[in-house]
Write a structure and sequence with these properties.
Layout: H1 2-20, E1 23-31, E2 34-40, E3 54-59, E4 69-72, E5 81-87, H2 91-95, E6 105-111, E7 123-129, H3 133-142, E8 150-156, H4 165-175, E9 178-183, H5 195-201, E10 208-213
Parallel strand pairs: 7-8, 7-10, 8-9
Antiparallel strand pairs: 1-2, 2-5, 3-4, 3-6
Bound molecules: flavin-adenine dinucleotide (FAD).
Flavin-adenine dinucleotide binds at residues 54, 69-72, 84-87, 89-93, 131, 134, 215.
Length: 217
């Protein structure tokens, strides 16, 4: 047991991080309270990460060295760059905005099965709630499909909470994919995203694979 823990939690991450030498490239504010962290490194494609997956991230910065937190890739992984997008809700998530370019980054992963390999049908409905948009953004960009095959439904409390919306609009236009937002009305009423309402908006919804990510409820 100790050997397994040592192998997976210590030796494998050490080897991975020596090979890829990841560093913070930039921190970008997406909306108030949500930042993207761009992480550069060497031969990152050899990590074998796919859109939809996550890593446990550790940043060699004050107050962040000793804890690792899970964040999904919010864009398709590139050989020289990975990106995460994070909503500040506590200690670790709030400190990310203070990261300086050049900060060393350790990652453990990739983890997660929310990938294109789960596909069983031609059409896909991606449903994102709040910051659950992060893996969905990466999948929206990369899932194979012809024009009209991919739909993204993005639920947020308000339009100000919609992160990455301009990228999403661009991807939708380039791919001929469908992008639908579901935000509260100005008086706070929640939008109807019941099964019936989905069936009205997407009549062939029962012929779609559905990928979901977001908070409960
Ligand atoms: C597989 C996975 C992928 C994730 N990807 C992303 C991502 O791409 N972007 C992003 O912003 N966040 C993501 N998260 C959530 C993120 O990991 C947590 O928000 C973060 O670790 C909280 O750390 P903290 O120290 O800032 O807050 P803490 O002080 O640990 O928590 C603050 C408050 O948030 C609650 N909380 C903590 N974690 C979660 C959670 N996972 N779900 C709901 N409530 C929680 C706590 O109960 C507490 O009330 C992901 C979580 C998982 C499990």
């Amino acid at each position: 047991m100790t050997a397994l823990v040592l192998w997976y939690r210590v030796i494998t991450p050490v080897r991975l991080n020596m090979r890829h030498r990841m560093r913070v490239e930039a921190v970008v504010e997406e909306t108030p309270g949500i930042v993207s962290v761009l992480i550069g490194g060497r031969r990152l494609h050899r990590m074998g990460a796919e859109a939809g997956q996550f890593f446990r991230w550790r940043f060699k910065a004050p107050g962040m060295r000793f804890s690792s937190h899970p964040y999904s890739l919010s864009a398709a992984p590139r050989p020289d760059m990975l990106r995460i997008t994070v909503k500040a809700i506590g200690d670790h998530t709030s400190r990310l905005r203070e990261l300086r370019p050049g900060t060393k980054v350790w990652a453990e992963g990739p983890y997660g099965a929310l990938t294109a390999q789960r596909r069983s049908r031609g059409k896909v409905l991606l449903v994102a709630g709040g910051v659950g948009i992060t893996p969905m953004r990466a999948l929206f960009e990369t899932l194979p499909g012809a024009a009209g095959d991919i739909t993204l439904l993005y639920r947020a409390n308000s339009t100000q909470d919609l992160a990455l919306w301009s990228e999403l609009a661009k991807i939708a236009e380039e791919r001929g994919a469908r992008l639908m937002y579901a935000v509260n009305s100005p008086d706070g009423e929640r939008p109807d995203i019941s099964a019936e309402s989905l069936r009205r908006k997407i009549p062939d919804v029962d012929r779609h694979d559905v990928f979901m990510c977001g908070p409960p409820g």
